[in-house]
Amino acid sequence: MQTWAATRDAVAPLLVKYGQVEDGMDGARYPFWALVRDELWTIEQVQDLTLTSRGRRPTLESLNEVNPLGGLREDDYNLLRSHPDAAASAAAGLILRYFHPLLAGLLEDFGLHELLAGRWPDALRPVLGETFKDRDAIWRVYGGQKMAGIGCLADGILSVFSDDKGPYADGRIPDTSWIAYVGDGLSGDQKLTDGNELMAEHQTAGSPLRYWHKPYQGQFSFETWAVIVQRRLRWGVGEDKLPRREFLWVLAPVPSPERETWPAEVLEALDADTGELHDDTGDYRPSDLALGAPSVEESDQDAYRRLAQKAEANAERRRGMKKPTLADKYIRDPSARAAVIKRCRGRCESPQCAGHPTELTTAGLPILQVDHVKDLAKEGHDVPWNMIALCPNCHALKTYGENKEKLRRLLTVTARRLHEAMLD
Fold it and tell me: Residue 385 to residues 311, 328, 417: CA-CA distances in angstroms?
């Protein structure tokens, strides 16, 4: 327990320096008083204090006159004194929430240099790779929201959860370690509210978040820290089986929340990101991906021509970029994919397919993977004439097969021929 005067004199200059407060003496009233409501702080002689007209806090005059004692609750104080790791974890969490990126001199000014110098991200809990059976197990240890796909643990740091068995089609962006994460909202067009609003705030601030992943029949693990480098709007299908517009958040994994550890390509993407919404829903229609009712206004060939033209225009625009980021290079053009889905008519396009070319998924959609014949990583183009729809077996043969180079040559010719036939 410390007197109000001792607390005020210690806190006031910190509020001016780090809290953008003009009058540090008056500003110190708020934390001294408000932490009582959070059940972290106790104040003696409360009955002797005079409150403001609205009763929200004591007047500065009465605090100076009574000079009451205030401090941490005894059990919390004893915990922090006897368990430095708990103190370090709490302090590191507050730094990440409110003082990120870490400001020069802050650790010294707050008396945390010895506790956290050079290792404040290491003090955060949970640690990378920590695994839990399910969401309930995470909540029991770290608190916070229990069910939503986007939300904070008890420390107030944002987490996003991806479940391979869940309703969202999250996943790694091909040829990169980056993640395409579907936004919050199960049915209907997604709005910039709730979890999506939190994501937008993190995108604007360039703040890191925790990415949790549960593979099929596996367990949830804290897989990586990540930052949001782009936000897109695409067509998807909701839990009600109806087409809807959904956000696609592009997450770039980073080694830690400390900006100094982030790879150059991530920093470049953050610098290039204006925070704007990249709306792809005008480039194609739900019916192009068999998500909605078939179009009666145009034939499949007319639809293919429309989509191929849009894909060529998008590819030309990307080629004209002076310094494209990884997101610009590797995020697949949905209009190009939609064109190939339209062209293949639900069948594997490999002339040598010996599997199940018309097999369907449990959702009733073709079990096909639209792939680039010449990979984007090898400067292949994201256009229909360089893309082909393959069943999982043929896709594996193209990627890992003993005769993959021979098959790639065949698929190159096939994709061109099928493309030209649709344009004829």
Answer: 10, 20, 8
